[in-house]
Amino acid sequence: MDIPEASEACGSVLAEVSKAVIAEQEFLERIMLGVLSRGHVLLEDVPGTGKTLSARSVATALGLSFSRVQFTPDLLPSDVTGTNIFNEREQSFEFSEGPIFANVVLADEINRAPPKTQAALLEAMEEGQVTVDGETHELPKPFFVIATQNPVESEGTFPLPEAQIDRFVVKTSIGYPDSDGEVELLRRRVGREARSPSVGSVLSREEVMDVRLVPEDVRVDEDLLHYMADIARTTRNDRRVDVGVSPRGTQRLLEASRARAVLSGREFVTPDDVKRVSPAVLAHRLVLTPDAQVNDVAKADVVSDVLERVEVPTIE
């Protein structure tokens, strides 16, 4: 699959998902950035905005298997990864797969699970495998995690450690719809009997695998590599930032920028691609100083200030 074909395929997926999800196009594109860059997406928003519907709709449109895990304080790692069960007839242990064995896994309210269960996702998200009782089991390919967390209810939650937040390529939120969007939401509800809308399958699993390889063919000029590195280094020197963007974050910025170029149908990355993806890719990786936290400094504002300070290369 070449870049124009991949761009058209992604556009078809976004159009299909838009039939069910009332959201800004940029929000849906950010989820597709996670798909194309072979990473994972973290959605943070208040309940009832459509996070679960968005994840399920994306999985269906991509033609992939879908699994939802409701994270709770009493959830055990084996409830996610699976466990070995004794088969009396065969007199042996057999591995029973957990809900993580799906192409698209929705980790709903991930910050409600204890750290031990959250850590069970780390190997899966980074390596595409899980280890149970010393045995390694490969996860289905492609493997894509969409995690959600509720920012307004802090009781009974376990904040994600920076090491795990860094595993997500993109962190974004769907937000409330505008007036016209909310009316359209009601209009669609009136026109069907089911409470939840449905979408159709646009791609197959094999086509998704092909699409995820396409960004590797996108050209990135040397000046843009220096531009991305300068952005990451500037975050580390900002007086409001205690811990800046890690080298892993710099690589994810490159991958997301190439994915953004594919969505635009281009064979090369532009500075605008880098600027457009930077807030969603970099902001959640920053650890602010105590003074900045007391003053309610927004991480997205820090990224915006950094983008203004770093000189933009001229691409001919």
Count of DSSP strands: 11
Give the C-level CATH assignment of the largest domain.
Answer: Alpha Beta
Beta content: 15-25%
In round numbers, the mean pLDDT is 89
Radius of gyration, CA atoms, in whole angstroms:
20 Å
Low-confidence stretches: none
Please work out how many helical segments DSSP would assign: 13
Number of domains: 2
Query: What is the N-to-C succession of helices and strands?
Result: HHEHEHEEEHEEEHEHHHEHHEHH
Describe the structure in your own words.
It holds the Pfam family AAA_lid_2. By secondary structure, the chain is of the alpha/beta class. It has 13 helices and eleven strands. It has helices at residues 3-18, 25-36, 51-61, 77-81, 115-127, 162-165, 179-190, 205-211, 222-237, 247-263, 271-282, 290-294, 299-309, and strands spanning 41-44, 66-70, 82-87, 92-97, 104-108, 129-132, 135-138, 144-149, 170-172, 241-243, 287-288. The strands form four sheets. It has a five-stranded parallel sheet. The two termini are 27 Å apart.
